[in-house]
Amino acid sequence: MTDDGAEAGGPTRARRLLAAAGIGVLAALAAWHRTARFPDVTRSDLAFQWTASRLWSAGRDPYALIGPGREFPWITGLVYPGTMLPAVWPLAALPLWAAVCAFAGLVAAACAYAVTASGWHRLAVVLSWPFLFAVTSPQWSPLLTAAALLPALAGAVVIKPTIGLAVAAYRPDRRWLLGAVLGGGALVLLATLRLPHWVEGWRVALATPPSPQSGQPSSGGLYDAIVFQPGGALALLALLRWRRPEARLAAVLACVPQTMGGYELVPLLALVPATLLEALALAALSWGVAVGVALGNPYATLAEGFRTGGLWSVWCAFVPATALILRRPNVGALPAWGERMVAALPVPGWLRGVAA
């Protein structure tokens, strides 16, 4: 595997770049179309991140200014860590609609380039509903998917540490960890130089009760883990194939707190398939999440909608992905320290697996 994640026999870098550029343009156009249909882009997740980054670059504290009843109202406090602020800063000078389109195009292009390293089959993720939702919202999950494969982008895991933990479980090799430490460390340093107390601000924001629009008495009501949804614990069966990177990704992704909007499924749908048929099947099944959520409309609260999304995510994404993983042998490479640790554990051979 080369530095950009390419594998021998895979598509050439030029073709991957061309495909990524095309996907990026289409994603930007999709984001623009959604913005044109729903002009109030101030309601998107990127809007309050964009606002926060502008405040941060101006020397103001976004954690004190964004949230229910504050100068910049939002349904919650600024629940992203300070590492998000310098990451979004390059887009802060753009008008919000342009920042939304640029962000969508960039994260989609990065994802498309990364997933084509081993072949074209994983590009089927762009046909999934979570990918479409993620680029039109827009969200970080396509970039975090790319970060799982490209050490140069590994630092992005500190922007959204919960999903970032699942991404880190996918590829804990030395080169990737070095990229994560250097890139993530740079974001931490930049955030801290401008806003030294951001960690405390983030902690308070996570504990800030959301506005009544969410329908929850505490911010915890908007975040949950897949394993706590009906049937969600089935995703932990992937750990029977723990040597495989996609198995570790699925299990950890099922355990970390997240909103259940569906867009966090992108890494799962992109990184689990081993063939085109598997990739197309997962992409097609993912539309069941959209249908299931739509059938329940209207929802009394935002949290109720998220819970419905979580239920459908279990059965239309996590369970099928886990079934694919369990059909494969427990074979995979680990860093040397990992192999030593496994060798010292008193576990049966079938669970220990085979080093690749």
TrEMBL record:
> Which residues are the signal sequence here?
none
**What parts of the sequence cross the membrane?**
17-35, 94-116, 123-140, 146-169, 176-195, 221-240, 268-289, 309-326
Query: Which keywords does this Swiss-Prot/TrEMBL entry list?
Result: Membrane, Transmembrane, Transmembrane helix
- State the name under which the record lists this protein: Uncharacterized protein
